[in-house]
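Friendly challenge for the regulars: who can give me the structure tokens for this chain first? No prize, just bragging rights.
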Amino acid sequence: MIRIIAALAVFALTSVPGLAQNSTTPNGDNPLAEAPMTMQRLAEIIIALDPNAEFVGITFQMVIDGTPVIIVTDPGSDRMRAMTPIQNAEDLSPEDLLRMMQANFDTALDARYAIAQGTLWSTFIHPFAALEKDQFISGLGQTVNLARTFGTLYTGGGIVYGPGDSIPLQRQLIDDLLQQGEEI
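First reply, four minutes later:
Bragging rights claimed.
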């Protein structure tokens, strides 16, 4: 069994473009890495995605393809959370809870289902300084997709195993957002 896992890990590293390549310089720097995220940079990205976004202190409110998204930052603690409410948590069945936990393991990707203050949320949580533009944009798309697919596919939309019609539809939001943020 361990040999199978090791073989799969080697296959994954050598078959995915970029994973097997060393992207650091001899002194350990990565010339392709972005500068640490700042509140100004995050605001620029958010405004590019939603020119009507609102900012209050360390909180941003925006709409992505008709879905409201709240972004709470705490640069001092190096945290960022993007989230959108889904429904009242009291209305969740045991089957919903099980399916959400399964999705958090495989199809939710970088977004996650979470419960706080009596509400079921779709969230994307990341260290603030290490957050890169495309990670943030993809995380927003996954958060919206996860909320939209609650009760059906339970997916962040970036990767779904197996064939089907939903893959291109779910991936489209993330691709559209990445395209919108390309000029930043």
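Residues 1-24 have pLDDT under 50 and may be disordered. The helical segments are 2-15, 39-49, 94-105, 133-148, 166-180. Your move, everyone else.
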